[in-house]
Specification:
The complex is a heterodimer. Chain A is mostly helical. Chain A has a domain of about 180 residues: Cytochrome Bc1 Complex, Chain D, domain 2. Chain A has eight helices and five strands, in the order H-H-H-E-E-H-H-H-E-E-E-H-H. In chain A, the strands form two sheets. In chain A, strands 3-4-5 form a three-stranded antiparallel beta sheet, with no helix packed on it. In chain A, strands 1-2 form a two-stranded antiparallel sheet. Chain B has a two-stranded antiparallel sheet with strand order 1-2. Classes of the chains: A mainly alpha, B mainly alpha. At the A-B interface, helix 1 and helix 8 of A face helix 4, helix 5, helix 11, helix 14 and helix 15 of B.
Chain lengths: ~290, ~425
């Protein structure tokens, strides 16, 4: 009869071999992975990461400026209302600023009593208007590609770091929920002037190291000195990209500040409650052999 | 286990009511006086945790349904509306979406505990089978719930899974069309999934009542795997002993749940589901939620569509047959040295399948999935039946009280 230990060793060896061995054999057989596999985007230092993370209001305001002056020329943001820009935990412009901003935009409304559509100045309750009448108009103007809506874009992009990293991404202290923002920064700065040797770009395509297929229709959107910041922050493509990525993260997850603040309180109460319940249980059971 | 209730209401009104509908007596005998083996460890609190999770999912779900719109043109936006404009909508939605994962985490622990301690053996077969029914209903509910936000993974996941039915010979395509309410996953599909997603949890609640009823007829199993012989020596009353211990379990589980909800709410989801469903654009990798991954790996491990479907459902059928496949007369793995090792191999096998289910089905991942799928079925169909005949179990204690005196079925999670 086999002892339990030796059985355990055999079992461990078996499962180890299956899970590590088989893919390893296959890795040798599989055709060499694409020479231009998209690299893992480097991580940035985000104010909204971590247990006590919250958005940096000034960064969001700068990011909004980048969004407004650059991104929103092509991209829609249909879940962003002007009023959101004054919400707590966001860029927090004043109500007067938001009102003035909205009034600069023409919003299509109607029909009026005569049955006609008309244009009127925007109000804080209006949603962010798009430069294009519909998806097809946007495609035509953008080399055949549809610029994705930006409302939840920062949550719609991930970073797959594989085993074992994905396990750590859930754990307190090392949790990683800012993947979309990191990807956006990497994408903004991942353009090359020319495709690597052996790769051909068609028509309006550009080469980007971090785009999954590398061939992206969006031209390099941000360059040094392109936007004039009023608050003295560095006017570099790197800074612009981080600011706009933070803004996009806020647009995708506008309640993050409230969520983390509430979460801290909830966990605090739960730890105390669990401790008290455990102590009570211990005391109750102390006279029972179990 | 619980005979006619000896409950006597203290007030006159109570006695008046009890003689007309003895519902308080029922509650008293089921949740107060009910004798609980005194050697239960914390793995036994997962039943209470699951009841709590069912309640939490129903409450958050009912409120979410007040704000959600089941229409292909509006569903995605209505979920974003909930996240932004409904008071505490983000919390409701994250509680509900992560709640599904926590529900499955708890149910897998609960099932594994039942397997480790042989809780499915006579006289608890019906109790176990009702549990399998609940598990199946949970899977259907979760699958349909995942379709509702109408993201890319919702849509393509629904397409892949409903398409499985087309593998059935002769009538497959008819069934699939009937399920869809059309010729692809579309608005009628979304509407019926919403309707069923609202209905099934109440069916789960109904089967849970039967599950608890069956439990209270045959009594709880316990780490020693021997029945209660002397109620005085072997058991404690459910309230306050089990109630309080279950509360500790629920509270500790809530810490985990809330960590996910408040700090990593999107960890268990797929980024693609934040993209509105687009029937013209297939995502690079269609992956189900994590709790379906082992079954998904089995489905893909078989090189034929119909075969894959048969094996995938067969994986659940194994659970149905388990009470009769395990031939050992000893319940608890504590007294079964070889079974104990095999059990952990089985757990490793399922986790391995889960990992492989998340990987693209290429090269070695396919081979590994095939080996593990084979082990999954061999475990149930060959190893368990034979093991009961050849394994020499350690001596089982005469009673729960004896097991406690001996230092007991020393197991993790005891306190």
């Amino acid at each position: 009869m086999l002892s339990r230990t030796s059985l355990g060793v055999i079992a461990a060896a078996f499962f180890g071999a299956v899970l590590i061995g088989a893919p390893a054999i296959a890795a040798d057989e599989a055709p060499a992975a694409s020479a231009h596999e998209a690299p893992i985007p480097p991580r940035n230092d985000w104010s909204f990461a971590g247990f006590f993370g919250k958005y940096d209001q000034e960064q969001l305001q700068r990011g909004f400026q980048v969004f407004r002056e650059v991104c929103s020329n092509c991209h829609s943001a249909k879940h962003l209302a002007f009023r959101n820009l004054a919400d707590p935990g966001g860029p927090q412009f004043s109500e007067a600023q938001v009102k003035a901003l909205a009034a600069q935009y023409k919003i299509k409304d109607g029909p009026n009593d005569a049955g006609d559509m008309f244009e009127r100045p925007g109000r804080p309750s209006d949603y962010w208007p798009w430069n294009f009448a519909n998806d097809n108009a946007a495609r035509t103007a953008n080399g055949g590609g549809l610029p994705p809506d930006m409302s939840v874009l920062a949550k719609a992009r991930g970073v797959k770091r594989g085993f074992p990293w994905f396990i750590f991404e859930a754990l307190p202290g090392v949790a990683y929920q800012e993947q979309g923002a990191d990807y956006i920064v990497a994408l903004m700065n991942g353009y090359r002037d020319n495709a690597p040797a052996g790769e051909k770009l068609d028509g309006a395509q550009n080469w980007n190291d971090y785009f999954p297929s590398h061939k992206i229709l969006m031209p390099k959107p941000l360059s040094d000195g392109q936007i004039t910041y009023a608050d003295g922050a560095p006017q570099t493509a790197k800074q612009y990209s981080q600011d706009v990525a933070a803004f996009l993260m806020w647009m995708a997850e506008p309640k993050l500040d409230q969520r983390k603040k509430t979460g801290f309180r909830v966990l605090f109460v739960l730890f105390i409650l669990t401790g008290l319940l455990y102590a009570t249980k211990k005391r109750l059971w102390s006279n029972v052999a179990h | 286990m619980s005979g006619p209730s000896t409950y006597v209401p203290k007030s006159a009104i109570g006695r008046w009511f009890e003689s007309r509908l003895p519902v308080m007596g029922l509650v008293h005998s089921s949740f107060v006086a009910y004798p609980t083996p005194k050697n239960l460890n914390y793995w036994w609190t997962f039943g209470a945790i699951l009841s709590f999770m069912l309640g939490a999912q129903i409450v958050t779900g009912v409120v979410l349904a007040m704000h959600y719109t089941p229409n292909t043109g509006l569903a995605f936006d209505s979920v974003e509306q909930i996240m932004r404009d409904v008071n505490w909508g983000w919390l409701l939605r994250y509680l509900h979406s992560n709640g599904a994962s926590m529900f499955f985490l708890a149910v897998y622990v609960h099932i594994a505990r039942g397997m480790y301690y042989g809780s499915y053996k006579a006289p608890r077969e019906v109790l176990w089978l009702l549990g399998v029914v609940i598990f199946l209903l949970m899977m259907a509910t979760a699958f349909m719930g995942y379709v509702l936000p109408w993201g890319q993974m919702s849509f393509w996941g629904a397409t892949v899974i409903t398409n499985l039915f087309s593998a059935i010979p002769l009538v497959g395509d008819t069934i699939t069309t009937w399920l869809w309410g059309g010729y692809s996953v579309d608005n009628p599909t979304l509407n019926r999934f919403f309707s069923l997603h609202y209905l099934l949890p109440f069916m789960i609640a109904g089967v849970v009542v039967l599950h608890v009823w069956a439990l209270h007829v045959v009594g709880q199993n316990n780490p020693a795997g021997v029945e209660i012989k002397d109620v005085e020596k072997d058991s404690v009353p459910f309230t306050p002993y089990a109630t309080l211990k279950d509360s500790v379990g629920i509270s500790a589980f809530l810490i985990l749940y809330c960590w996910f909800v408040f700090f990593v709410p999107n960890y268990l989801g797929d980024p693609d589901n934040y993209i509105n469903a687009n029937p013209l654009q297939t995502p690079a990798h269609i992956v189900p939620e994590w709790y379906f991954l082992p079954f998904y790996a089995i489905l893909r491990a078989i090189p034929s569509k119909l075969g894959g479907v048969i094996f995938m459902f067969g994986a659940i059928v194994m659970l149905v047959l388990l009470p009769w496949l395990d031939t050992s007369r000893v319940r608890s793995a504590v007294y079964r040295p070889v079974y104990k090792v095999l059990f952990w191999c089985f757990i490793a096998c399922v986790i391995g399948l889960g990992y492989l289910g998340s990987q693209p089905p290429e090269g070695g991942a396919v081979l590994a999935a095939r080996i593990l799928t084979a082990f999954y079925f061999i475990y149930f169909l060959v190893l368990l039946p034979l093991l009961g005949l050849f394994e020499t179990p350690r001596p089982v204690p005469a009673s729960i009280a004896d097991s406690v005196l001996e230092g007991g079925a020393a197991e993790p999670g005891r306190a």
